[in-house]
Amino acid sequence: MPLLARSVQTPLHIEVRRGAVADLGKILVDGRISSGGEVAVVVGPGLGEQVVDLLRPSLKSAEIFVTGGGTLDAALELSNELRSGHYDAVVGIGGGKTVDTAKYAASRWGLPMVSVATSLANDGIASPVASLVNDGIKGSYGVHIPFGVIVDLDFVENGPDLVNRAGIGDVISNISALADWELAREVRGEPVDGLAASLARMGAEAVLTMPGDMTDDAFVTVLAEALISSGLAMAVCGSSRPSSGGCHEIMHAIDSLFPETASHGELAGLGALFCTFLRGDERRFAQMADCLARHQLPRTPSDVGLNADQFVRAVEFAPRTRPDRYTILEHLAMSPEEIHRKLAQYDDAVAAR
Ligand SMILES: [Zn+2]
């Protein structure tokens, strides 16, 4: 009997629950990651002390590193500091910036990395990608997939509400990214990886239609798992394709033309809704518009403080942010006048819901 299959690198341990940070020492022992707790713990300046107080009793020999995080320079500096010690693993605890800084630094020395997410801002918690700013431009750097992924719901609950809700926008943008992938298959014959697509789709479909909000543990758990499987989808196919299409091109364009407009997840959700409208998929558009409204996430350019001209510029610029990626934006190749016209129709369609 032939047993043909592929091998996929995934995290060895995934835990989504309350109290995970306090139990970290035990989790590392149980997971055979570190029996003596000789790990480098990387925290951000905000949560730092609170996290250290909580995990000290279970991780007495851990060495703590505080990073401003979020930039390639900070990640390189951290990796130089890590070089002088001997660690079983690097544990990054915090939001996207801290985790991505730790991911990059650990990957540089081939150290196992454990991602402990205290917020659910985007699908970076389990992905083999570190999003870091270099010379003022945000870039995506390939790294080893985290060895362990832990989400502590106590921290998520107490974190900034909008930061967490933004993860909903990032997850449901998968629906639009997958439609772009299908389009690239039809038009350009680009192969679609079915396993990656299903990992990216399932969580997105669940978050799109699931009742409940960020005060509901069942919903937050599904959101965390959806973000994790989104990261796995990228690891499975070796590209961000299953979770990033025209939606993310618009997000990257807004980020580079109008920095600090809104977070990754908020802009990905807005970009996904706009791309879904461009595709003329009314059922999806309605579902997505309602989901974003339900979770008080932005749906129109004015919701994130952009005027029509600025948004049109971003949509026009978007294809240049990912030159080889074929999406609805490359497919339609709209002139600025056409984008303006579509945007006016889009604003009306959103207002009607
Ligand atoms: Zn994303």
Instruction: Determine the oligomeric state from the structure.
Output: single chain
Number of domains: 2
Number of strands: 8
The total count of helices amounts to 14
> What structural class do helix, strand and pairing data support?
alpha/beta
Distance between the termini: 55 Å
Measured as a percent range, the helix fraction is 40-55%
Average residue pLDDT: 93
Low-confidence residue ranges? none
Q: Tell me the CATH topology of the largest domain.
A: Rossmann fold
Pfam family, one: Fe-ADH_2
Organism: Actinoplanes lutulentus
GO molecular function, one term: oxidoreductase activity, acting on CH-OH group of donors
Protein name: Glycerol-1-phosphate dehydrogenase [NAD(P)+]
Note down, in words, how this protein is organized:
- The protein has helices at residues 24-30, 48-55, 72-83, 96-108, 153-158, 161-188, 194-209, 217-237, 246-257, 264-279, 282-294, 308-317, 328-332, 336-351, and strands at residues 13-17, 39-43, 63-66, 89-94, 113-117, 129-134, 137-142, 148-152.
- The radius of gyration is 20 Å and the shape is globular.
- The mean pLDDT is 93.
- The longest helix has 28 residues, at 161-188.
- It has two domains: 13-158, Rossmann fold (3-Layer(aba) Sandwich), CATH 3.40.50; 161-194 and 242-351, Dehydroquinate synthase-like - alpha domain (Dehydroquinate synthase-like, alpha domain).
- 52% of the residues lie in helices and 12% in strands.
- It has a six-stranded parallel β-sheet with strand order 1-8-5-4-2-3, sandwiched between helices. Strands 6-7 form a two-stranded antiparallel ribbon.
- The chain is built from 14 helices and eight strands.
- Strand 6 (129-134) and strand 7 (137-142) form a beta hairpin.
- Helix 6 runs parallel beside helix 8, helix 6 (161-188) packs parallel to helix 10 and helix 12 crosses helix 14 (336-351).
- With 353 residues, the protein is of the alpha/beta class.
- Zinc ion (ZN) binds at residues 122-123, 170, 243-244, 248, 264, 268.
- InterPro entries: G1PDH, Glycerol_DH.
- NAD(+) binds at residues 96-100, 127.
- GO terms for molecular function: metal ion binding; oxidoreductase activity, acting on CH-OH group of donors.
- This is Glycerol-1-phosphate dehydrogenase [NAD(P)+].
- Glycerol binds at residues 123, 170, 248, 264.
